[in-house]
Amino acid sequence: MAGPQPVGLLVILGTVGSAVLAILLVALSTYGRRCRHPALRFFVWGASLAFIPLASSAISALLQQRKTDRDRHEQYCEENPGCADFPKGSASPEVQIMWTILLWAVIMVIIRGNADTAAATAATAAAAPSTGDVSVDGQKVRIPVELLAKYAFVAWLIVMCMPEADWLEFAGKSIFVVFFLLGFAKVVLKLVAFFKASDSYAVGKNARLVSGYMAQLVEEGAVAGHGHVPPYVVMGESKDDVEETPQGYRIKREALDNKLGALVTLDRVWLLSDHGDGLLRKQLELRDLCLSFSLFKSLRRRLSGYPLAEEGTISALDFVLRGLDASGKGGADADRVFRVLVDELWFASDFYYSPLPLCSFSGWCAALNYLLSILIIAGAISVGCVYQSYGVIVFNTKGPLSDVKLAQNANYLITLFLLFATIFTETCEITAGVCSNWTKIALLGTYIKRGWPGRFTHAALEAVLRLKPAKRWSNKIGQNSVLEPRRFGKRSGFFSEKLYGRAGLMRSVGVSPAVKDVVLRSLKSSYGGLDKGSGTAEQKVGIGGKVAWGWAWPANGTQESLSSTTEHILACHIGTRLIEMKYSHAACPTSAAADKTAACHLSYYCAYLVAAAPGLLPDSTAWTEKRYKEVAEDVQAALGEDVVDGARESAGQRYERLLKELSASSRDKVLRRGAELGRLLVEAYEGDEAAAWRFLADFWSEMVLFVAPSQNVKGHVEAMGRGGEFVTLVWALLLHAGVTDRAETPHGSSIP
What we know:
mainly alpha
């Protein structure tokens, strides 16, 4: 029999490339969170889209070849009685290739089904408020027509190839068909779950419900303060507990008063934790997980465009400053506060960016989803065994390596790779689901509402709740130095920026406890507002009047007046870097080590925001980019190869040289102002380094608190997609404190 035609080989090569790219798409969209570039995703999508036509062309050509060869064989047998039987199964290379391509097609649609069924469109959803109840935060649940069309096409290919499958016998054909149907059943199950979720008060209608409920609490004065935990919704929202009024959704009073009902509120969780004897009392981090989930639901209002009824209320701020207190001493612990916020934004990031939104699954849907994944794994193993036992795929090492053997071995390895990829993706989905915080919340909800007696069940639940979910928040802050641009460089080049974005070009450091402490300290000191010009500002940092808070903001109209927040950040960053240089020759006092770490990290982080995430700052993004480029170019003109020169001079000499070069009249006003600020700081705190770092730590934490409130919801959602930004944590913290707008500055303008 004739081997595959050249056109068949080309089609096979295209099919293999499309299958591999489809797997890469799943890996990149599900786990490779740093490789979400639109060009890359479009390329992989286009290649996978071309898979079905290529596979169809190849199989059609092979079927036509088989028909032609069979006709010739029948004609030959009429002329020569007693001729050999027409080759079937493993004896026919055409049949081997045909069923190999068919298996690749089935695997491709199964793997793509995990990614395509619920592809996230978070940026689009956050750009406008949610419209109606037929969507989840603006993300309408649409039927994946393209994926269903692929399944229909593959089903047609299977029907076409069935006449050439007698040699597989009934068992082999049944295993193959069931494997295909399991993938299709999983897609249907997900669609059912998503449509149910879109009509659910716990998911699809939740942002609107929580918005109305928070307004209800404000109207009733039930958002308690002074450390008392408010009755925020955690879980258990149902249609029976909701009533619709002209003002929006409200939760019935009887549902709120029933402490044994299905509706779980935050105060009920705290009550069980303080006076119960179960898991919540033994593991306080589970109580905090309920708090994170409740805050996530509150945050969704903002992400969906609904107003915050508690905005500006003293009770909201009181809850953040006193309610997030595990010790009961009237003060929130910084590490705990930010851990709660990280878990909250974990929920938000997973909700918007995961291709497998587990919040959509509940009860029997979740159980069936896991069962289908297990059956698909078993099906992949069974199909692999069938293909090997019937000789569809063969790894031949006997004799000389001919072109036919090389093609067979390549098909064998590719098929095994794709089968293992199927097993891997399904295993990862099961693992991610079981370990996720969504599963923990669902189990905790059942535990709180019903209580589960029995030692074995209790131990099993305890084990699941200890599992760590997939990491979705980087818990790092980017760093950038205007005076030393290469200091924090991680990679460079035009293509690196296009692929990773500007944030991916700069190094990052872990968020230190000192940074968390100083930010929360400043928030507490600014209780009731974020005005840097308040009369108590100097007292709170204890600087004795050496440098007033107006050090960074000269009166408008002076020679060095700066007109934007961007310019202030860059000038103050330069001043901070200069004082760091001045004191780098001596060991930092132990008492000032934490403040120095916080001041330097936050200074470098604000410079990073200017360079890599200007959309999260108050000024126009285009203006910020333009000014940063101008300042960076002037730094290069002023200092040249400063990194090299700096190695041959002491820290004091370098400080004096930079101060002189940056102060030149020909330099940009940002550089001149930065040099002046550095000189003022050094003169004011000469001999008192600890006070200088205390002052700068409080200043930069105040700066972060100032820039964090923002109307750019889309920018923060996009930041979640690349691993999160520290300023987004502060943004969420201030939202829960009822702070949504930036304060006025000492000079009455909207910039500091």
